[in-house]
Every structure is written in C-alpha cells, then in structure tokens.
Design a protein that fits this description.
The protein has ten helices and four strands, in the order αααβααβαααβαβα. The protein is an alpha+beta fold. Strands 1-2-4-3 form a four-stranded antiparallel β-sheet, sandwiched between helices. The structure holds flavin mononucleotide.
C-alpha cells in the first residue's frame, strides 16, 4: 500500500480511538429531537425551507453507512408549484394536501447504476463494480436496500437540522418514475414532506412493538 494511504489509515484509527475514548452517548434532548418526541407530520406552516437548510440536511445524511459505500440515494426537492403539479397525479388522494401544503417534498430515489461510481467511492476493491455490472438483480437489491437506509438517515438528519418530516409511500412509483426519471437509471423509493409542522394535524401516537416481541439473544 502506498505510504500516503497508510498514513491516512493510521490517522483514521487514531481519530476513531480518540472519539471512542470520549464515551459519548446521545443526551435526552437529542433523543427527543430524533426519536422519542419527534412525530410524523401531515400539516405544514407556510414557512419556507432554505436551500442552506436542505444542504445542511444532506451533509449530515450522507455520513450514514451503506454497503461498500455505495450511496445509491438520489434526491429531487420538489418546491415550485409547477413541480408540485407534476407530482400530484401520482399521489393517493389523501396524500395530495399534505404534499401541496409542505414547503418542500423530497422524492427519494435510488440509482440502479450506482455501481458506476464504485471505483471512486470504494477504492479498496477496484473490481467492485463488476459484481453489479452484469447482475441486474444484485444491483437492484443493493440500490433498494442502501437507498432505503439512506432514506432513514435523511429523515433523521432533517430532524437534526430542525425540520419536521412526513414520509409518504402512498403514491404510484411508476408514474413518478415516468414523470421525473424517464430514460434514466433512477427509481423512486418514497417521498418526504419537509418543513415546519402545523402540529394541530397529527394523530395520537401509535403503539410500538416491545423489545421481547422483536428481539432475541441467542
Ligand atoms: C416510508 C413511510 C411511508 C409512509 N407513507 C405514508 C403515506 O403515504 N401517507 C401518510 O399519511 N403517512 C405515511 N407514513 C406515516 C406513518 O404512518 C407514520 O410515520 C407512523 O405511523 C409513525 O408515526 P409517528 O412518527 O408520529 O409515531 C409513512 C411513513 C413512512 C416512514
């Protein structure tokens, strides 16, 4: 391995050891912001979301891990009335007002050709792209798995920068793909309304499954 790469690895190990030694855990406020108090929102204040906030969101979300550092998620921020008009016909009727009211609706997509970037994104294995180049199923499975993971990071990052979030999968993916991604290797995954919530529109919190029902240690 070249000396400069070895030095980078050593610096990364030293930074990780220092970070680990700090023994950090999330405080109550952070947990509330991201999980315990945060809610899914359906109504929105007429308050804009700036480009800077959307960029800050992405800068956080991009750091979440993906297999082989694939990063297949792609995002279209739908903000203008004209763009909302294009999105509307694909939505289930109940989701239309939620999307129309939100200052921004993100189309979270994944790129089936994510593997084209692997020489840049995963240099430890220069042949990594060959795994997916001739195997459309492996490409689809990996793009969907890791694109969905990135979608979850995206929602939590949005909360971290002070935005409220309302995800929606109630829409026709084929229609969105035809309208926004025709002739490309992108496929829509789900939508995320972003903004500052009108809290009067939420419902009671629904139950979560208990640890014992979900987890086992063997
Ligand atoms: C991927 C995803 C898709 C969803 N699709 C819809 C949808 O189409 N319409 C809707 O009103 N809510 C939708 N929801 C909202 C969920 O029902 C809601 O997040 C869940 O009940 C938890 O609510 P809470 O975060 O307030 O506890 C979706 C949520 C997720 C994460």
């Amino acid at each position: 391995m070249p000396d400069d790469l070895q030095q980078l690895d050593e610096a990364a190990r030293s930074a990780a050891a220092s970070f680990q030694a700090r023994g950090l855990t999330a405080d109550e406020t952070t947990l509330a912001l991201l999980f315990s108090e945060a809610r899914t929102h359906y109504g929105w204040q007429q308050r804009d979301v700036t480009d800077e906030t959307l960029q800050a969101l992405y800068e956080i979300a991009k750091m979440g891990p993906t297999s082989m550092n694939q990063q297949p998620m792609r995002v279209v921020f739908v903000r203008s009335d004209q763009a909302k008009d294009r999105l509307e016909p694909a939505l289930l009727p109940g989701n239309v007002p939620k999307m129309r009211q939100a200052p921004v609706t993100a189309i979270l997509a994944y790129d089936l050709n994510f593997w084209e970037s692997l020489p840049e994104l995963f240099p430890p294995n220069p042949d990594a792209q060959n795994i997916f180049k001739n195997d459309a199923t492996a490409a689809q499975v990996n793009a969907f798995r890791n694109g969905t993971l990135q979608g979850a990071y995206f929602m939590l990052a949005a909360r971290a920068v002070g935005l409220d979030v309302g995800a929606m999968s109630g829409f026709d993916n084929a229609k969105v793909d035809e309208e926004f991604f025709h002739g490309t290797s992108l496929k829509s995954n789900f939508l995320v309304n972003l903004g500052y919530a009108d809290t009067s529109k939420i419902f009671r919190r629904l139950p979560r499954l208990d640890y014992d029902r979900v987890c086992e240690t063997i």
